[in-house]
Design brief:
The chain has helices at residues 25-30, 71-77, 113-125, 145-149, 170-180, 193-203, 239-242, 253-260, 264-276, and strands spanning 3-11, 16-23, 36-40, 48-51, 54-56, 61-67, 87-92, 103-109, 129-136, 154-159, 166-167, 184-190, 210-213, 229-232, 235-238, 245-247. The strands form four sheets. The chain has a seven-stranded mixed β-sheet, with helices on both faces. The chain has a four-stranded antiparallel β-sheet with strand order 1-2-6-5. It folds into two domains: 3-93 and 265-276, Translation factors (Elongation Factor Tu (Ef-tu), domain 3, Beta Barrel); 103-260, Nucleotide-binding domain of ferredoxin-NADP reductase (FNR) module (Rossmann fold, 3-Layer(aba) Sandwich), CATH 3.40.50.80. The protein has nine helices and 16 strands. With 287 residues, the chain is α/β, with parallel strands linked by helices. Helices cover 27% and strands 30% of the residues.
């Protein structure tokens, strides 16, 4: 599970978005759009779920994109080309149902844009007309615009500060377009939970099928620990085995966001330890 290529896609003073290509021939041979992997940087580390952005069956590699936010993703970011991951399992989750939906609106924000790339590619190949909205805090953090744009019939861009595209949120553009065009067979949304909640609220009155891609906290990724449970239509589901895609009109986002925040204090303490080490973590098995 060697890293054969590493590229920094975006960088600010506070964070980086990184692409790595990893040797994983078995996963590359089987992976389908929408599926993900779970990796560990070291034996004593936590499990990190990441969408399979691309694959190269000839080279036996898969492409992963992540943002350095917490301890584990920053630790992953310290690895270099030629380094190896401790473990990697996949492909996991149900693949995206690809068919001709007619007009499709793909709404992606932040690092969730990485998850939109294999989706728009496969939906375009399935005959869909693709509208996309890509959103980020600033132009420096907007990734894959050109890569996604080549599959889109219409592409919109928004940034919180207006440094690229329209100033505002992806939901503002979506709401404006839906007032004029309502004949969408599917709205697919991936990004921060609050964004997906708002998008689902916007599409519900129009009765447009809305799929959200959820990347919840995962531990064992087998459905046994219950760490990634959520409520859909009043029933308990598990993101790792029932997802990662769910009906946005039926997901209890408030409950899910509350659960996502339950380890926030522990995450802050863990990140503080990383900073105390000066970003010079030794990747051994001593913890």
């Amino acid at each position: 599970m060697k890293i054969v290529n590493k590229v920094v896609l975006a960088e600010t003073a506070d964070t980086r978005i990184v692409r790595i290509d990893v040797e994983a021939a078995v996963i590359a041979a089987k992976a389908q759009p929408g599926q993900f992997i779970v990796l560990m940087v070291k034996q004593t580390g936590e499990r990190i779920p990441l969408t399979i952005v691309d694959k190269n069956q000839n080279k036996g590699t898969i492409t992963l994109i992540f943002q350095e936010i917490g301890y584990s993703t920053k630790l992953l970011g310290t690895l270099k080309q030629g380094d190896s991951l401790y473990s990697l399992v996949g492909p996991l989750g149900h693949p995206t149902l690809v068919k001709n939906y007619g007009k499709v609106f793909v709404v992606a924000g932040g690092v969730g844009i990485a998850e939109a790339l294999p989706l728009v590619k496969s939906l375009k190949e399935g005959g869909c007309l693709i509208y996309s909205i890509l959103g980020a805090k600033t132009k420096e953090l907007l990734i894959l615009k050109d890569e996604i744009g080549k599959y889109c019939d219409k592409l919109y861009v928004s940034t919180d500060d207006g440094s690229l595209g329209e100033k505002g949120f992806v939901s503002d553009i979506l709401e404006r377009v839906l007032r004029k065009e309502k004949d969408f067979g599917l709205v697919y949304c991936v990004g921060p939970l609050p964004m997906m909640k708002v998008v689902s609220q916007i599409t519900k009155p129009y009765n447009i099928k809305t799929t959200v891609c959820l990347n919840a906290i995962m531990l064992d990724a087998t459905g046994m620990c219950g760490g990634c449970r959520l409520i859909e239509a009043g029933k308990v589901k598990f993101c790792c085995v029932d997802g990662p895609e769910f009906d946005g009109h039926l997901v209890d986002f408030d409950e899910l966001m509350q659960r996502q925040d339950r380890f926030i204090n522990e995450e802050k303490r863990s990140l503080g330890k990383f900073k105390d080490k000066g970003h010079k973590c030794r990747l051994d098995n001593t913890g």
